[in-house]
Amino acid sequence: MDGNRTSASKHNYLTTLPTFNLQLLEMEDIMSLTPLGAGQEVGRSCHVLEFRGMTIMLDIGIHPGYDGMNGLPFLDRIEPDQIDVLLVTHFHLDHAASLPYLTERTNFKGRIFMTHPTKSVLRLLLGDYLRLLQMNNAKAEDVLYTEAELQSCINKIELIDYHTTVTVGGLSFHALNAGHVLGACMFWMELGGRSVLYTGDYSMEQDRHLMAAEIPEQKPDLLIVESTYGVQAHTSRPEREARFTGTVERVVTRGGRCLIPVFALGRAQELLLILDEYWQANPHLQKIPIYYASKLASRALRVYQTYANMMNARIRAQMDISNPFSFRFIQNLKSIDVHNFDDSGPSVVFASPGMLQSGVSRQLFDRWAADPKNGVLIAGYAVEHTLAKEIMAQPKEVITLEGRRQPLNCLVDYVSFSAHVDFVQNRSFITQVAPRHIILVHGQKDEMGRLKSALVHMYKQYPENKRPTITMPPNLQEVKLKFARRRSAKVMGTLADREDEPQEGEKVEGIMVTNNFSSKIVSPDDLATYTPLRLGSISSKLHVPFCGAASTLELFLNEMYHGVKKYETEGIDASVTKFELQGGKVSVTIGQSVGVAIVEWEASPAGDVIADSFVALLLHAQSSSASIRLTSKPCRHPRENNSDEPNEKKVKFEEISTEMNLIESRLRLFFSVLQEQYSNVEAAFEGAKATFEIQGDGEDILCVVKVDFLDEINAQVSVESEDHELGLRVQDCLRNTAMAAAPIRV
């Protein structure tokens, strides 16, 4: 059978035929961020973050340069009822003023979180915002919500303290101090094993009453950061204060009126502290009045006094002696009739709103703009499409609220007290935070582009695998980030309480419980300790009609499953045979009842499937043609032709039932498959071994296959062939056959 041949190609391998390696594909999670506002613009900050089934909205502001619906974020591009959580960083209108519209005029059902000062001040600011709309006779369609809707919205807000972790579904988050204004915060979020830091507006500079922003201890996967000033660098704070006070003094000493447009709360309090201190130090100015024209003046100062404990050490120390917000030289004007206001002499007026779009600040500007003795001092960031931004370009004429043109002769100066980071501070913060991905928001396109270029240039000095991705999406452009899903679980309870150290590769058996993307493995006995679950079991029993032989069922069970255990005992009338799988969790018993097989199992996903297959095998074992041949018996009635056929059949049955086994059946299966694939195949069987010769048209042997089963599952296979391609095909054929026909391991 060996013949005289040379082996041009030989494939020897030791393999577990029914087992093959699968390369586990790393599952990827997609995190997406879509700006609905403040994407390559400043104003109407609103971003939607989506990850692992959670949808989070970050801020919900209006654009101060547009009226009514035009100033809203692009809320028509989302389904508000899909938002799980809304996080508001601070009370400025461009970050929070659309909140009542979202809660009262859409189907939003999520939870809303902000700090205590933010809620207190926001109620005042939005009430003042509605008052300004009424004062300017705004069109009905430009009024986004009513006073009643505002109050309903405020009642839905939940409060959060700095450094207090809140969990909503799969999201946990806490607030960090952001500087900027009283109560402003960054949000650190964790969901699905990933972390996100959203800065909102933040300041890294301590001023007269606020602390600088915090730097988180951990490194986020994603940083969503403002880019308001791009690559601009602020002058030093003493220099800015000197320029601010010097400009005010220059205007009033020449007999002029100095208008400082501000929002009622926020930077106004910082500027009031600076100017009141300057007036105290300069007695020659103390006869010149300083007015804080705002209906909110007294209430705003009460809010600031209430939350003095959230301010810097200077203010907290001063509060022990006197109220730092009780100004000596500043008069609060709850109401001001611009037309009857006595402005015959020099004065300083703080008036809202800060963008000069309407209200008292706009009325005073229209009245004073033509006089060269007067001055307008812009002390914060001026948003595009607002009058404050327009006059910084020093136009010769401006258009009043009444629509008439008038010359712009007064002084216009700009000193930045906006409490946003400049490039140096932003770069330092980003470097310390060290995120994997950076998304720039809240900045004009050109400034944002320059910041991105500067950051890209900076990160060129880093190794390539340490460089973060940097994007600057416009409004409505979705940014998608891919993260490999982290698959880990904590072993807890008695499973972890063991004296010896677990070895690498050691199997741990327990129940894995997953909640909010966090998984832990516990012993069934510890389930009640670490979860609200209680352990129970369901035992099922099914009676299936069965008239076949136990040996036939044994053959079918072993063909299907590996590791079937057989037990026999003597019953009252006959022997009882029991087959078990999964350590006795699934069993079938024959002989206990006449004509019935009893299938018993403990309910579980695997147990239910195996029990179903047992029922199918029982039915198949008594109805298939193979079963009939194995279990058929000779007719006992006398026959004229008395031959020895019955004895032959009985012997044949006994031979099959006693000698046919799993290994032989697999060897014969290989033989049958090779015969179907190749026309001329010779076989020689010897116990657990077999040799197959694939012959050509003549007597040439094209391929020799030797199979030696080490046990019921594992085999050593040798393929020899002069034709390399033929050898590979035969090898693959046998491998696939073994994998398809092998018993299932359970």
TrEMBL record:
<dbReference type="Pfam" id="PF11718">
    <property type="entry name" value="CPSF73-100_C"/>
</dbReference>
<dbReference type="Pfam" id="PF10996">
    <property type="entry name" value="Beta-Casp"/>
</dbReference>
<keyword id="KW-0378">Hydrolase</keyword>
<dbReference type="GO" id="GO:0005847">
    <property type="term" value="C:mRNA cleavage and polyadenylation specificity factor complex"/>
</dbReference>
<dbReference type="InterPro" id="IPR001279">
    <property type="entry name" value="Metallo-B-lactamas"/>
</dbReference>
<dbReference type="GO" id="GO:0004521">
    <property type="term" value="F:RNA endonuclease activity"/>
</dbReference>
<dbReference type="InterPro" id="IPR050698">
    <property type="entry name" value="MBL"/>
</dbReference>
<feature type="domain" description="Beta-Casp">
    <location>
        <begin position="268"/>
        <end position="391"/>
    </location>
</feature>
<dbReference type="Pfam" id="PF07521">
    <property type="entry name" value="RMMBL"/>
</dbReference>
<dbReference type="InterPro" id="IPR022712">
    <property type="entry name" value="Beta_Casp"/>
</dbReference>
<dbReference type="InterPro" id="IPR021718">
    <property type="entry name" value="CPSF73-100_C"/>
</dbReference>
<feature type="domain" description="Pre-mRNA 3'-end-processing endonuclease polyadenylation factor C-term">
    <location>
        <begin position="504"/>
        <end position="744"/>
    </location>
</feature>
<dbReference type="GO" id="GO:0006398">
    <property type="term" value="P:mRNA 3'-end processing by stem-loop binding and cleavage"/>
</dbReference>
<feature type="domain" description="Metallo-beta-lactamase">
    <location>
        <begin position="43"/>
        <end position="256"/>
    </location>
</feature>
<dbReference type="Pfam" id="PF16661">
    <property type="entry name" value="Lactamase_B_6"/>
</dbReference>
<dbReference type="InterPro" id="IPR011108">
    <property type="entry name" value="RMMBL"/>
</dbReference>
<dbReference type="InterPro" id="IPR036866">
    <property type="entry name" value="RibonucZ/Hydroxyglut_hydro"/>
</dbReference>
<keyword id="KW-0539">Nucleus</keyword>
<keyword id="KW-0540">Nuclease</keyword>
<dbReference type="GO" id="GO:0004534">
    <property type="term" value="F:5'-3' RNA exonuclease activity"/>
</dbReference>
<protein>
    <submittedName>
        <fullName>Cleavage and polyadenylation specificity factor subunit 3</fullName>
    </submittedName>
</protein>
<dbReference type="GO" id="GO:0003723">
    <property type="term" value="F:RNA binding"/>
</dbReference>
<keyword id="KW-0507">mRNA processing</keyword>
